[in-house]
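task queued by scheduler; priority normal; single chain, no ligands, no partner chains; default sampling; output format set to C-alpha cells
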Amino acid sequence: MSFLNLRQLVWITATAVALESACTGPLDDLNAENREGPNGSANSALAALSDAQIAAVLKAANTGEITLGQLAAASATDPAVADFARKMVLDHTQANQAQSTALTPLGIVPVNSKVSELLTSFSASQSSFLESLSGLDFDQAYMDFQVQTHGTVLNLLDTQLIPEARNPSLQTLLTDVRSTVAAHLALAVSVRQALTP
C-alpha cells in the first residue's frame, strides 16, 4: 500500500468514525440543549430527531451524493467508477424529488440537526480531499468514500431514522430509501473491489 493510500484509509476511517459516533452517541456540550427531556430534565441519550430533522438528514445525504457524484463523473478515469458516479447523481436527484413530493403536502419541511450538519460537513471534506487527487488514487478514494458513506447512512436508517420517524408516510419513504441505500452499498463494494488495490 502506498503512502497516499494509507493516508486515505486513515482519513476515511477517522472521519467516518467521528460521524457515526456523533450521530449515534451522546451529544457533546455544544448540544446540551438537545439533551433536555420534556420537563427540562437532563437526558443522557441522544435526543430523538423530529420528522423535520429526519427529512433534513435525507436531504443532506442526497445533496452530498449529488455533489460528489458530479465531481466523480467528471474526474474518474475508470469507466465503472464514472458510471457509478452518474448513477449516484441520477438516483439521489430523484430521491430528493421524491422526498419533496411525499413530504411537502404533509407540511414536513427539513430542519437541520447535528446529524444533518455532520453529513454536510463530511461531504464537503470528502469533496475537498478528492479534488486533490487524480487517476487511480481519485477512483479508489471516491469508491472508498461511497462504501463508507452508504454504510453510515444505512446504519443511521436502521438505528435512528426509521425507528424515530413518527409520520407513516415518512416511515414508508425511509423504508424505500433503505432498500436503495443497501443496493448502492452493494454496488459500491463491487466497483471498489474491481479497482486495482
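post-processing summary
- Helices lie at 3-24, 51-75, 79-103, 114-131, 135-164, 168-194.
- The radius of gyration is 17 Å.
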